[in-house]
Automatic annotation (TrEMBL):
Keywords: ATP-binding, Nucleotide-binding. GO terms for molecular function: ATP binding; ATP hydrolysis activity. GO terms for cellular component: cytoplasmic side of plasma membrane; cytosol. GO terms for biological process: negative regulation of cell division. It comes from the Bacteria. This is Response regulator receiver protein. Pfam families: AAA_31 (PF13614). The keyword Protein transport does not apply. Residues 131-270 form the AAA domain. Gene3D superfamilies: 3.40.50.2300, P-loop containing nucleotide triphosphate hydrolases (3.40.50.300). The lineage of its organism: Bacteria, Pseudomonadati, Pseudomonadota, Betaproteobacteria, Burkholderiales. The keyword Transmembrane helix does not apply.
Amino acid sequence: MKALLITRDGDLQAELAAQGAARVPPLSLGACRSSIQDALDRPLPDQPALVIIDASELDDNDAAHLERLAKHYPGASLMLLTRAHHQELLIRAMRAGVREVLQLPLVHRALHEAIDRVAAAAGVTNMRDGKILAFIACKGGSGATFLSTNFGYALAALADKKVLLIDLHGQFGDATLYVSDQKAAMTLSDVCRHIARLDAAFLESSLVHVSPGFGILAAADDPSQAVELKPEHMDAILRVARQHYDYIVLDVGRQIDAISLRALDNADVIYPILQLGLPDIRDGRRLLDIFRSLGYPIEHTRLIVNRYEKGGKLRLQDLQSALGAEVVHTIPNDYIAVTDSVNQGVPVLRLSRAAPVSRSLADLVELVTARRVVENKGLFDRLFGRADADQ
Ligand SMILES: Nc1ncnc2c1ncn2[C@@H]1O[C@H](COP(=O)(O)OP(=O)(O)OP(=O)(O)O)[C@@H](O)[C@H]1O
Ligand SMILES: [Mg+2]
């Protein structure tokens, strides 16, 4: 996809060129003009798909020319970058048909999401709009790996979704072993090492395929290779994954490092997994405090209680008040079905469909797929809505 950029700011030009080049497929800055007038005086021979206008130095004269520019490039989407939400300018922009307004300095994730929308509208890609669901254990052995792998399988099997699971355990990642007997030929660190080759086909070929709709990207099993992993790699992998999978499930493990943090930053929903006991609640509170300090909205954090047994001394209500977060689901303690599944490396749903734990996973699939995780915001909301809507 080609873009025309209108700015006097060399740093912004370099930033956009770098972000555009990192996309799959790339967004190339076909040309740069210093003002709208300059763009009108020196039109491009080919229609760009996107015109990005730096409005931080836009004067009234320029603003008046916005509509002319839009008419000149009727096939292009217009994107405005502003330092302040200047009401009058925004109204003019809407009249001119501007589709996207982003705040400067640029938040890269918001930029890529906006470009995704433009690309989808232009029919450049037939992208999916995958949701990232992170499973994180509050305490060792809470069941995050069992649940994330079996939930991923259930999503693909019961809801007919295309699902990718990424095993983010820094060391001793074991997600593939829970649901498959295949050995991973490629791991997360292999993908990062060849990040320049990353596209949908490369990602798909790096997976352990558990079923036609469900693949797992195995953890980096050799700690010495972990140096290859950089937070930017996580962004790139998740960006490609969102375009080609309906759901990306993350088995985050317990350690919060630069990589898992970047993955969590990208998550639409975080599911901390815990059991109903005081040590789990203590660790859960610590984890949620970390999320609060990182500015994650609490409504995106939804607790799942694993190995739940009714009638215990602690009630779900006590847990919710102690942690200040909602328990969205409970998974029953189902020792026999789970142990059989884990020991054989076969998804519990395939092994014992009628087991209580399988039925509970099916309920979770329904819960997740019935409500859209993040509602798409309309243009008006994006123009005038909360700034963090685009973060
Ligand atoms: N609902 C359940 N009922 C019975 N047993 C369970 C249930 N969920 C998990 N288990 C058992 O708990 C064990 C630990 O689960 P799992 O490995 O998924 O935990 P984890 O949170 O990923 O731990 P780690 O901190 O090691 O990554 C599993 O081997 C499984 O046998
Ligand atoms: Mg685990």
